Request: fold
Amino acid sequence: MERKIVYSAIQASGIPSLGNYLGALKNWSKMQDNYDCIFSVADLHSLTVRREPALLKKISRNMFLLLLAMGLDPQKNIIYFQSHVHEHCTLAWILNCCTYMGELNRMTQFKDKSQKHSDNINAGLFTYPVLMAADILLYDADFVPIGADQKQHIEICRDIAQRFNKIYGDTFKLPEPIINKNGARIMNLQQPDKKMSKSETSGTIFLFDEPNEIMNKVKRAVTDSDNKIIYSQDKPGISNLLNIYCSAKNISIEQAQNFFADKNYGQFKTIVAQAIIELIDPIQKKYKELAQNKDYIDKLIKIGMEKASNIAYKKLDKVKRKVGLVKHL
Ligand code: AQP
Reply:
């Protein structure tokens, strides 16, 4: 039986957060045995926010290493840099011409990021979902494992694909999002009404944090004063920590609530912090090991590019034919 295709990407916009890991990356490694998986470091997406070039280069390479460190096997999966496969940009342009301004205007991420970067509301930020649609559609992905914040972008990707198929004939597969039950939306520890983001320094746990930093961050997490460890909309701080714990331990909220029933907030926070430390520790160790081996990593970067380009080239060729572009000889 033909294996289903999984595609996902992570922006090179900082050190990945615990939210990135529990919401998306953890799922990636679980899928590699049962699907044909393609994962990219979305470095072109990172340009939508102005960054120091040397820093972007460093963050992007670190991200690639981290994907390997968390257990993605470069033999089983295609792991590559988005900017190494030029077909992404060409397809994004073609899809831009099938996307309405009104649709893009409704994207909540665009609204949030425009507020956050009001000095640089660029066209790339606005058309970000179209490039993301191109990423996914180039590889005929069946499934896209993501955090809840990206759901709207998969919906617009499907709308664009459907529109294209209707105008030009069947070309693109319609991808389905895969969103974890636990961990789909990890919140900022200091502002539990706000998503945890890797570009936010306060209230974010980073995958490179030292154990004592993690312990301190969790201990300082905003909670409430009623000392009940239960999951409730009225208790965003406690609910977020419960969610993190469940996701790290792969247990249900009910199981976690029972486990913490006789604990106070201090004990609760210590146990949650320890669970995070245990989760991250093997990734950090593997990362340090890989960082020593530059030639090996360079080789993998090249292999990833070649494998991804091979698929993307054929798909783009088909799209170009469909829309009526003259084939180059
Ligand atoms: N807080 C979160 N909880 C669960 N999942 C999350 N994801 C991001 N934040 C959370 C998921 O991580 C994957 C990679 O995300 P991305 O880097 O491509 O873009 P993003 O959603 O914009 O992530 P950040 O951390 O918030 O980045 P910045 O700070 O640069 O904007 C996605 O599947 C996402 O859903």
